[in-house]
Write a structure and sequence with these properties.
Layout (H helix, E strand, L loop, with lengths): L9 E4 L16 H21 L1 H12 L11 H7 L3 H21 L4 E5 L2 E9 L2 E5 L8 H14 L3 E6 L9 H9 L5 E4 L2 H10 L9 E3 L4 H12 L4 E2 L7 E6 L5 H12 L6 E6 L2 H17 L3 H11 L1 E4 L3 H11 L3 E5 L3 H6 L6 E4 L5 H6 L25 E8 L2 H17 L3 H8 L10
Parallel strand pairs: 1-11, 4-5, 4-7, 5-6, 7-8, 9-10, 9-12, 10-11, 12-13
Antiparallel strand pairs: 2-3, 3-14
Helix pairs in contact: 1-2, 1-7, 1-8, 2-7, 3-6, 4-5, 5-6, 7-8, 9-10, 9-11, 15-16
Length: 441
């Protein structure tokens, strides 16, 4: 039953203000980011120097388990065998939908001929990929599907799973069951956070070094992925850190739907960002009334309260065009559109991890089973990168095959550009194949 209470969101009034708003929009503070960076530096340095010893030490500190990080063979199959029938059916249906989408995401190889030369691109599966599945504040069972399914679709040679243990040393059984449904893994380890990313990147006595690491995580996990990528140790998919949602809505939206979606995002993490962008002050007020009921009735009320008090924001804009401009600058991980003309608004979006169009397309659908991956760019990085797809597990290999006639056709270009760059050996490498005099002589 509803009440007269409200849950006030921070108001940011941008009506009549077309200045760049990104510095005023909610996200983690520089102080929070700096602290996470310092703490992650310490963990990664220790894992690189000490290997398994450091992994065990930090796993015991953060997860309460200091034993062997290796997971026993057969653990995935055992977890699947004990999974309740309804959950197993849900996992299988979700995996089927995710697989369907990612099969269609696979980029095609191609070959063509021009000027007598053949060339093209083929896509080679990555050798060894580490998939990280969070299990801290919430065991993200669905992440096992979202990372392993596209890896298997791409044909990755070896998939290595890392997921945090519980104090008794066992990972969440739902995560292991999902990994089995997704196609299984070649090795599995009970470790989480920055220490898991360090182990997957650098390798330890137990953990093989991976060519690429994929999967979302909290702040320390995301920071660790960024650091190992900057070191050139291995590749990563994208910066998938603390979660966020922006909802573009007008008076056509149901305030209960908007409130429920804000709470669903805040449920993930105390640092999660939940933002409403609307030209309607009346809708913002009605959402705040609906939020009071949603917050009061949610299970993880303290986590939700902390997130909404810290980052919950209602942004008032001039119109829906202005709303799109604001979200394009902010680059949200998730963007919902609940307006009188959802498709037209969605067509103008150019920066969002995934766009959820219409009142019946909540983010939670995408989190679990819609099809597109839920490993998405956060922190504004959606302005220049997209979500995890099959392409992230493949390396595009360009190839060329020239015969003598085709080489002769382009040799003058090589001559001219080699001279312009003062690299005469480049021109010589073409000329010697044509029995010509060295152009430098």
């Amino acid at each position: 039953m509803g009440t007269d209470a409200t849950w006030p969101l921070r108001r940011l009034d941008l009506r009549g203000d077309r200045e760049d708003p990104r510095s005023r929009l909610p996200r983690a503070s520089e102080e929070q980011v700096a602290q996470v960076r310092r703490e992650t530096d310490e963990v990664l340095a220790a894992v690189r120097a000490e290997g398994d010893t450091a992994v065990r030490r930090y796993t015991e500190r953060f997860d309460g388990f200091g034993g062997d990080p290796r997971l026993e063979p057969g653990a995935l199959d055992a977890a699947l065998a004990s999974t309740p029938a309804d959950l197993r059916e849900a996992l299988e249906r979700a995996a089927d939908q995710i697989r369907w989408f990612h099969e269609r995401c696979r980029p095609p190889d191609w070959e063509d001929t021009r000027g007598g030369a053949r060339m093209g691109v083929r896509h080679a599966p990555i050798g060894r990929v580490g998939v990280y599945v969070p299990g801290g504040q919430a065991p993200l069972v669905s992440t096992a599907l979202m990372t392993i399914v596209p890896a298997r679709v791409a044909g990755v040679d070896e998939v290595v799973l890392a997921t945090p243990p519980r104090p008794d040393g066992t990972p969440d059984p739902g995560i292991l069951a999902a990994a089995a449904v997704a196609g299984g893994v070649d090795q599995a380890f009970r470790m989480g956070g920055a220490q898991a990313i360090g182990a997957l990147a650098y390798g330890t006595e137990s953990v093989p070094p991976c060519d690429k690491i994929v999967g979302p995580g909290a702040a320390h996990t995301a920071e660790a992925k960024q650091q190992v990528a900057m070191d050139g140790v291995c590749g990563i998919d994208l910066l998938a850190g603390v979660t966020e949602v922006a909802i573009i809505a007008d008076d056509h939206a149901d305030p209960r739907h908007v409130a429920a979606d804000l709470v669903a995002q805040a449920e993930h993490d105390p640092l999660a960002t939940a933002m409403l962008v609307t030209p309607s002050a009346d809708l913002a007020q009605r959402v705040e009334h609906a939020l009071a009921d949603e917050v009061a009735g949610t299970k993880h009320v303290e986590r939700v309260r902390t997130a909404l008090e810290g980052q919950g924001t209602a942004v008032l804009v001039d119109d829906l065009d202005h709303a799109v401009d604001v979200t394009n600058v902010w680059g949200p991980e998730h963007l919902e559109i609940q307006t009188g003309d959802d498709e037209a608004v969605a067509a103008r979006v150019r920066a969002a991890g995934t766009v959820f169009i219409g009142g019946c397309s909540p983010v939670s659908l995408g989190d679990y089973a819609a099809g597109p991956n839920h490993t998405l760019p956060t922190g504004g990085t959606a302005r220049f990168t997209g979500g995890l797809t099959t392409s992230d597990f493949l390396v595009p290999v360009n190839w060329v095959a020239y015969d003598r006639d085709a080489l002769a056709e382009l040799a003058p270009v090589v001559d001219a550009l080699g001279a312009a760059e003062d690299l005469p050996a480049h021109a010589r490498a073409a000329a010697v194949r044509l029995d010509k005099e060295d152009p430098g002589e």
